[in-house]
Amino acid sequence: MKRRTFIQKSGVAASALSAGIAANAADEADQPNVVIVHCDELNFRTLGCYRDTLSEEQAFMWGKKAVCETPYIDSLAKEGALCTSFYAATPVCSPSRSSWISGQYPQNTPVTNNNAHLGDDVVTFAHQLKKVGYQTGYAGKWHLDGGGKPQWEPERKFGFTDNRYMFNRGHWKKFGMTPEGPEVAAKDKKGKPGYGVDGADAKSFATDWLMDRTIEFMDEHKAGPFAYMVSIPDPHGPDTVRAPYDTMFSDDGVEKPRTYAKDRATAPSWGMPAKNCPWKMASYHGMIKCIDDNVGKLITALKERGLYDNTILIFTADHGDMRGEHGLQNKGYPMEASAKIPFVIRWPKGIKAGQTVRRAMNTTDFCPTILSLAGADPTGKEEGQSMAAAFQGGEIKSENITFSRSTTKSVESDIGWIAAVSPTHKLILSDKDEPWLIDLVNDPDEMTNVVKDPAQAEVVKFMARQLHSYGTRCKDQKIKNPNTAKGLAVLMA
């Protein structure tokens, strides 16, 4: 396929380019390829490039002996941009993924909890990229087609033309190929697909196997332009990894997070510590090290094919993992370790290297942003906004705030928490608790409610009004819960 000339269509991004940010490169370059490395349940503190943005106390949450070096992911941040305030619209697998690909909030996709079906009418970034000549594909965990498990190659492709290696659900550790197609190579005692890692190696372990499929897709479409999303099912549990990563790290000397033993009597429902919570890190770090090495393999492959500098390369995740912070594990909470996700992007022809972007964003912003950067039209359904200008030296005129919500059993449900988040504050309301305001600058551990502090009065009013506006605009029923609505009314007054 003949490569097409890249044309920047976003008015905001175009103004940034005309101001001198890669203007000549954008005018002359081919359409950039797009490769997205998307992980599952990744705590941002485990990446070196994110630790570098934090105080020592925040960077080494499990102590200085519990560190995984991530030189390849770090190199993307050094040569591109890193976001410090990027959040999941809902910090749970399916809802977050639905917002990522569509630019819509989960209540409108409508995927408000895990294992829900993505709506047939959802338009994704892949649909739009296909319209401007991209070859599109997806490998790895999808989690947007109901209960099927593993369910290879879902019938509904949502713009991803090549989805041979897409599976709907599961955190499988070992894959293989058969004449009929891919399979989960590990089996349980009944001969059914299992999570075992025995015998997995650099060719069959899930992370390695999926990255090899990504490189194969690149080879098939290197004439470009191509867009491929590889969704790695790690470092989600079960916390197991192949050799030698299974012995690279030790839990000896790993410390409990400072917030581990917080008082249950004073904790809000959305931050209630568990009575017993694991906080070991060795296997988790092993999974991350394997991921980083595979990012290195991808970088090498792009360089060898002469594609590296004309590829928008993104590293990110669907949500975080508490890993013992606040006495909790996994995700679904509004605290940083769960709701905040890593987002690193490299594209030297359009994004200046070495940027730390402190603009508040969430997963709904990805779709319009990547379409703007790639020169494609928006879907017309986005509830997020293009943040291309934030990476290209331009101005974003909207307020520096974003939003996150808990899961619900249905679109109509008003139960759970809802949050407005800025780079400095977080306002959280729920059906069960009094409103909380967290000062992220002075209280990065998120332990103290300052909603009644007179010094925060203007911040509270501003964030409450923004939260109410979001809820009305994006049809979030949580703002109609009697307790939440009452709290908002008081805070906005």
Count helical runs: 14
What is the strand tally? Answer: 16
Please tell me what the overall shape is: globular
Beta-strand percentage range: 15-25%
CATH topology of the largest domain: Alkaline Phosphatase, subunit A
Strand sequence of the main sheet, in spatial order?
A: 5-4-8-1-9-10-2-11
CATH architecture of the largest domain: 3-Layer(aba) Sandwich
Using only CA atoms, what is the Rg?
22 Å
Return the CATH class of the largest domain.
Alpha Beta
Task: Give me the secondary-structure category.
Answer: alpha/beta
> Mean pLDDT score, rounded?
94
The fourth-level CATH homologous superfamily of the largest domain is Alkaline Phosphatase, subunit A
Distance between the termini: 59 Å
Order of helices and strands: HHEHHHEEHHEEEEHEHEHEEEHHEEEEHH
**How many domains make up the 3D coordinates?**
2
What's the helical proportion of residues?
25-40%
Unreliable residue runs: 1-29
Main sheet? 8 strands, mixed
Describe this structure in words.
With 493 residues, the chain is an alpha/beta fold. The chain folds into 2 domains: 11-391, Alkaline Phosphatase, subunit A; 414-492, Arylsulfatase, C-terminal domain (2-Layer Sandwich). The chain is 27% helix and 15% strand. It contains 14 helices and 16 strands. It has an 8-stranded mixed beta sheet with strand order 5-4-8-1-9-10-2-11, sandwiched between helices. Strands 13-14-15-16 form a 4-stranded antiparallel beta sheet, with helices on one face. A two-stranded parallel ribbon has the order 3-12. Strand 6 and strand 7 (181-184) form a beta hairpin. The protein is globular and about 65 Å long. The chain starts with 10 loop residues before the first helix and ends with a helix. Residues 1-29 have low confidence and may be disordered.
